[in-house]
Amino acid sequence: MRNLFDPRPKSSRSELFDRVDELEILDKSVGRPLIVVLGIRRIGKTSLVKSFLEPYNGIYIDLRGAATHLDLYERLSEGLSNGLSKLRRIIEGIRGIRIMEFGVEIRWRGTDSISLLGLLEELNRRGQFIVVLDEVQDAKPPISAELRRVLAYTYDHLSNITVVLSGSEVRLLSDFIGVDNPESPLYGRYFIEVDVRRFSRDESLDFLRLGFRQEGIEPPENLLKDAVDIFDGIPGWLVQFGRNYIDGIRDINAIREQAISIALSELMRLSRRERAVLKAIAEGARTWGQVRRIVEERLGETIPKSSLTRIINKLESLSIIKDYEFLDNVYRDAAQRL
Ligand SMILES: Nc1ncnc2c1ncn2[C@@H]1O[C@H](COP(=O)(O)OP(=O)(O)O)[C@@H](O)[C@H]1O
Ligand SMILES: [Mg+2]
After folding, report:
1. What is the DSSP pairing of strand 104-106 with strand 34-38?
2. Whose Cα sits closest to atom 7 in ligand 1?
3. Would you say the CB of residue 16 lies under 6 angstroms from ligand 1?
């Protein structure tokens, strides 16, 4: 079993801290066609869905950045390979699938090939099966469009398949599923929604205490309390804190700086105007008009109304802000330095 402060997503229920309520909802929903798991970065979506999958026949597929058929089938073969010990009997004999010593090969073009949909149909015939698609809102055309069609067909016709989508709220619901878009193939399909919540203060403290106990270290209680104040119930940051402390960084400000610099390097990928908008919000702008005034003043240029609205929508869709508030304090602190 891996320790709590292992930086990779957890993949078994024994490694997972809490999430009892979320797992209960997920377990109860097995057999339903569609479940959507939502939450901000580092909140523990991947850990939750992987651990959920543990006792079931199913596959986890990470779709971040997948754009081509090759990407899609590589991710699929990776997912099958990782679950091979439990899936071997189910996928044996499916056309286009070859089970090798260390992994699964998929032939997706030419004779004796199989498509994603074909594979799902085969799996559906063999009984209850769970397909987890992580960060599916981050797949790119043409794969994103194909996934939508495949999932709509699965929803309507493959009753043994439960699909779990996990990712950031706005983009998953609005962009991928298209909850407000009648043109989307997935429009109007009912789904179970699981929101991955922050840990409370007490849970965060317990998380840190347990993590340090596993490492045989006992940091001063007031340092743990400071960390909990800064990292606000987000397990990914708590793990980062734990790792830094173990690595010998003992000063809470230095640890905070590390987290801020990670967030800052992500924000640096945004455009100049997007960064200026974030900085304005980090400095307290609370309305569209305030943001506009501050940004125009800072950049010394006028910004068309529609551009500003588009930027704010994008920042919301990235789950950085919502209603002119940061969803994660570390990003707010980082944005002040943009
Ligand atoms: N419930 C949990 N128990 C233990 N560790 C967790 C838990 N949730 C998240 N983590 C840790 O936090 C970090 C971020 O989690 P991850 O599942 O990758 O989040 P997300 O997918 O939401 O970005 C990882 O290091 C993971 O191991
Ligand atoms: Mg994840």
Report:
1. unpaired
2. 44
3. yes
Atom 27 of ligand 1, residue of closest alpha carbon:
9
Residue nearest to atom 26 of ligand 1 (CA): 9
pLDDT tens column, 235-249: 999 999 999 999 999
Could you tell me the pTM of the whole model? 0.95
Contact at 8 Å (CB) between 99 and 88? yes
User: Considering Cα of 72, then 76, then 79, then 81, what sign does the dihedral take?
Assistant: negative
Could you give the domains of the chain? 20-195 (3.40.50.300), 201-250 (no CATH), 267-336 (1.10.10.10)
Q: Is 185 in the pocket of ligand 1 (CB under 6 A)?
A: no
Structure tokens at 38: 């939502």
Alpha carbon 52 to chain centroid distance? 14
Q: Which of 231, 181, 186, 193 is nearest to 211 (CA)?
A: 231
pLDDT tens-place string over residues 115-160: 999 999 999 999 999 999 999 999 999 999 999 999 999 999 999 9
pLDDT of residue 1 exceeding 90, the answer is no
What are the distances in angstroms from CA 326 to CA 224, 233, 268?
23, 14, 16
In which order are the strands placed within the sheet that holds 192-195? 58-62, 129-134, 161-167, 34-38, 192-195
Q: Is 42 in the pocket of ligand 1 (CB under 6 A)?
A: yes
Amino acid at position 20, single letter: V
Query: Relative to the alpha carbon of 11, which ligand is closest?
Result: 1
Ligand index nearest the alpha carbon of residue 63:
2
